[in-house]
């Protein structure tokens, strides 16, 4: 009796095909809740059960994956708001980190910041001094024009149009100068406040560095 032998490679191919057939034929089951809220396991998933969420099981009852319930519009809106808030916090943290790095690059001590503040203030204070001088000059000019006009009127004369126009021009110039002076004075307060923020932050960073240095020496 002659026995036929199959090549080893052919036998491997047959085994692989059988295994593939078993894998393809494997059936998935679905676990979900019916309209009464009772858990149900079925080989078919009703469309109405999809929004409520379900589990996909193997034939042995092992959970393969979990599909969560679909979120309501309110839940989606809340999630979106939370994501925006989280992103805003991340952006704020990144911006603060960039400001801190810039601060540490520009200054090596609080004294450096104070010196920079004084340089910035000195420039503004010079402009303020000039503007105050211009205000005094404008006021004096207006008073002179008004005195001339008063003398003319007391003499029974009529103030000419040129004098009236000069007074009006001087008043507009005074108003403009006073406005510029007020803006510069506000600018001084703003510069002081901004540099104070830098000073406070620099001190905070120094405290953090010192704290880390202390902790590292204690380890």
Automatic annotation (TrEMBL):
Coiled-coil-forming residues are: 71-98, 128-187
Q: What PROSITE patterns does this protein map onto?
A: PROKAR_LIPOPROTEIN (PS51257)
What does the UniProt keyword field contain? Coiled coil
Protein name as annotated: DUF4124 domain-containing protein
Name its species.
Answer: Aequoribacter fuscus
